């Protein structure tokens, strides 16, 4: 059962996040210490140095424990359900828009599918989940959270990077709409439209680009960029090292361990600092508006657990294991999703709001889930 000491531990883990956020916000909004170019540079520091080293450090230290393959499979099924649901929504909106325009081309929602998947599938399990679920169910629940966090670092975040890079390469070889505005204009648009998607040009460039002569250079460009992005393979290298070290009882040399750790420890703090800088550049603190804020929280706290229930039941999870699997799906939004969305210029305002609000709301929401699940499951 959750005690006041457990609540304090969770609050103590969350408070430093908002301290770093406040420093980043104040350094831009009030003290004018950084320009927009400086803010972009800080975010790139986080993306290309802090996050990959954190991913390696975390997965290398995760330790050897018996993997709960049914839990991992249930998580994969839940994410597949999210992908299918988002793809269905995008296709339906595209068809509706095409009908409304008399059969002509319609704006797609595929960029919103990327953001929707981030909101409904990628959470921050380590800061809140480990302390809270350990208090609720014990050490075995903490091990489940660590396993799922390792899976997210090794599989889901690199796959998101593949999608981001593919979208970026597509935008580079196709013309942009003439009415493109500010970088974050897309955050104010309804999810049924996608201001980031390039429109077809009058000279038929888009039609020609979709032929065989387009796809080979596109795939090559994506492959080269992914090979140069350490986030793609850092966590995988960490798992590989952990497996080898546990098999042959090896220990990382202290000079290497210390070099990695000194950058790894900056990851979450610098990620929140970068988010504060981003918010400081905007006209208001909650960047995306009330409608998208409610939508993002609905995806995080309702859609994600609902998809997880379906995946868990398909895999036959029952009892406390089912409860823990559902609760971890309702953890707050991953900080990494904001950092990457800002780097690739896709709905960073929505993700920043989701991280801030979902982290604040996570303790009462998860406590309510805990009480309800104890009654119905």
Automatic annotation (TrEMBL):
Name of a matching Pfam family: Mem_trans
Comp. bias (Basic and acidic residues): 194-204
Stretch forming the signal peptide: none
GO molecular function: auxin efflux transmembrane transporter activity
GO cellular component, one term: endoplasmic reticulum
Residues passing through the membrane, by range: 6-25, 45-66, 72-92, 112-132, 144-164, 293-314, 346-372
PANTHER family: AUXIN EFFLUX CARRIER COMPONENT, AUXIN EFFLUX CARRIER COMPONENT 1B-RELATED
GO BP: auxin export across the plasma membrane; auxin polar transport; auxin-activated signaling pathway
Organism: Triticum aestivum (Wheat)
Keyword Nucleus recorded: no
Region Disordered, residue ranges: 175-204
InterPro entries, per database record: Auxin_eff_plant (IPR014024), Auxin_Efflux_Carrier (IPR051107), Mem_transp_PIN-like (IPR004776)
Keywords, alphabetical: Auxin signaling pathway, Membrane, Transmembrane, Transmembrane helix, Transport
Top-level division of the source organism's lineage: Eukaryota
Similarity comment: family membership: Belongs to the auxin efflux carrier (TC 2.A.69.1) family.
Name of protein: Auxin efflux carrier component
Known function: May act as a component of the auxin efflux carrier.
Intracellular or extracellular location(s): Membrane
Membrane disposition: Multi-pass membrane protein
Main location: membrane
């Amino acid at each position: 059962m959750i005690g006041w000491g457990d609540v304090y531990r969770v609050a103590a883990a969350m408070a430093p996040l908002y301290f770093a956020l406040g420093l980043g916000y104040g350094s831009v909004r009030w003290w004018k210490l950084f320009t927009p170019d400086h803010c972009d540079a800080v975010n790139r520091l986080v993306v290309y140095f802090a996050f990959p080293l954190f991913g390696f450090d975390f997965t290398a230290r995760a330790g050897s424990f018996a993997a709960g393959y049914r839990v991992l499979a249930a998580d994969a099924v839940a994410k597949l359900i999210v992908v299918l649901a988002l793809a269905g929504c995008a296709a339906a909106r595209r068809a509706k828009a095409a009908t409304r325009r008399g059969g002509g081309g319609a704006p797609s929602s595929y960029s919103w599918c990327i953001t929707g998947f981030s909101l409904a599938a990628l959470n921050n399990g380590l800061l809140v989940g480990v302390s809270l679920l350990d208090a609720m169910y014990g050490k075995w629940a903490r091990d489940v959270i660590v396993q799922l966090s390792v899976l997210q670092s090794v599989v889901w975040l690199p796959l998101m990077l593949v999608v981001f890079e593919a979208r970026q390469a597509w935008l580079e070889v196709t013309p942009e709409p003439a009415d493109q505005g500010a970088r974050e204009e897309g955050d104010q648009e309804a999810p049924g439209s996608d201001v980031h998607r390039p429109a077809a040009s009058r000279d038929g460039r888009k039609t020609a680009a979709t032929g065989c002569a387009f796809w080979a250079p596109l795939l090559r460009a994506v492959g080269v960029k992914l090979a140069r992005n350490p986030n793609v393979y850092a966590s995988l290298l960490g798992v590989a090292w952990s497996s080898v070290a546990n098999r042959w009882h090896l220990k990382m040399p202290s000079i290497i361990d210390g070099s990695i750790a000194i950058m790894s420890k900056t990851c979450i703090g610098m990620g929140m600092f970068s988010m504060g800088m981003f918010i400081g550049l905007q006209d208001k603190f909650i960047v995306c508006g009330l409608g998208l804020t409610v939508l993002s929280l609905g995806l995080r706290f309702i859609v994600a657990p609902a998809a997880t229930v379906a995946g868990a039941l398909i895999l036959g999870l029952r009892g406390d294991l089912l409860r823990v699997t559902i609760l971890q799906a309702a953890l707050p939004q991953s900080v990494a999703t904001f950092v990457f969305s800002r780097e690739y210029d896709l709905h960073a305002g929505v993700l920043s709001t989701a991280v801030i609000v979902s982290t604040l709301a996570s303790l009462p929401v998860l406590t309510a889930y805990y009480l309800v699940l104890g009654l119905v499951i």
